[in-house]
Automatic annotation (TrEMBL):
Pfam families cross-referenced by the UniProt entry: Histone
Keywords, comma-separated and alphabetical: Chromosome, DNA-binding, Nucleosome core, Nucleus
The keyword Acetylation belongs to this UniProt entry's keyword annotation: no
Stated name of the protein: Histone H2A
Xref: CDD domains: HFD_H2A (cd00074)
Coarse class of the protein's main subcellular location: nucleus
Molecular functions (GO terms): DNA binding; protein heterodimerization activity; structural constituent of chromatin
Subcellular location: Nucleus
Length: 106
């Protein structure tokens, strides 16, 4: 009964599977901004985990419809191609817009 608290990671506190500390490290190493809020990596990890879970659910449905138990790259590709919003997110046009925004920022 010493009163010490057990240490909990930020991922566990936010109830996430995605590593918040790793996202924080990547954001700081890449120097995307001069100052970084403590909740920014938690928010970004939550977004990435949400996107990943949606993609995996769609890929699992594709695998099930094809009569397979394991998800392959083709199932992931088909899942992204079949969902309009995910397809729009992963097209090259989005990448060029991000590159333009980064170029304007520098």
């Amino acid at each position: 009964m010493s009163g010490k608290r057990q240490r909990r990671s930020r991922s566990r506190r936010a109830k996430l599977q995605f590593p918040v500390s790793r996202v924080n490290r990547f954001l700081r190493e890449r120097n995307y901004c001069q100052r970084l809020s403590s909740c920014a990596p938690v928010f970004l990890a939550r977004i990435v985990e949400y996107l990943l879970s949606n993609i995996l659910v769609l890929a699992a449905k594709e695998a099930y419809f094809n009569g397979q138990k394991c998800i392959t790259q083709e199932h992931l590709y088909q899942a992204i191609q079949s969902d309009e919003e995910l397809y729009q997110l992963f097209t090259e046009d989005t990448n060029s817009v991000v590159a333009l925004l980064e170029a304007k920022g520098n």
